[in-house]
């Protein structure tokens, strides 16, 4: 059977899940769960991966992550090997712990990240023993379930220092609203967002899928991406990208934050921040004067349409992108 493609690029968001071999437990006791989290933190730091949400069930786990480098495979290989080694040692066993490879789905941040986080956090009340319980009882269980990032999303005092809550909370307006968002999903039920997967590995809008295919896939295989191998986003700070664009266009970088500034220039900086700083459209919007992600999306779409028909705009974009690439070529990773 052919394996699914692992589409990897700097700044990509993934939902990752791994299930125990033969659906057997991967956590036997509390020590296993604590060790799992400790090893996860080590792997996150080693591979510069951002953890946005997680949940640990008895025989599987879910992670919602962003890879600052194009290194999902390396991160998951390291983490799974480390935990399998610990589990086997701790329980005097040998052999495979997980059922095949982990599953990873590329997430369109602007369209699905918030919804996937809610779906992930509701996992703990989907177990059969809670199906007949009242909504109030299941909500109480959700809040008290220790092995999930949800407590930190609804109560700041319960937050973990290894989870990045800010992005998802900014999408809904803070902890109080996220609490209501999850409770609403519990009360009314939500569909499985992964029923909308495209190409078997991408959860996103048609535009997002087209963009991924154009950039990273050709004839059903991954494009060669030598410039991404080992690329850390630490050298592509938003401030640096914005300065490059300003220099290339002969503009003051502060004008990018004017809400009614030059649409072409703001479109160029939006596109290059998205490509080279790994920012989401929500994060880009904050840099461009506090506009929302849909406004950023429109800036990028208008830019692309203009470049198809306006050579001058295309030259401006190419000049700015070349400036960023030149900077990258002079940086040792």
TrEMBL record:
InterPro entries in alphabetical order: Transposase_17, Transposase_17_sf, Trp_repressor/repl_initiator
Residue ranges of every copy of the Transposase IS200-like domain listed in the record: 9-123
Gene Ontology biological process terms from the UniProt entry: DNA transposition
Pfam short name (any one): Y1_Tnp
Top-rank taxon, per record: Bacteria
Annotated protein name in UniProt: Transposase IS200-like domain-containing protein
Source organism of this protein record: candidate division WOR-3 bacterium JGI_Cruoil_03_44_89
GO function terms (MF aspect): sequence-specific DNA binding; transposase activity
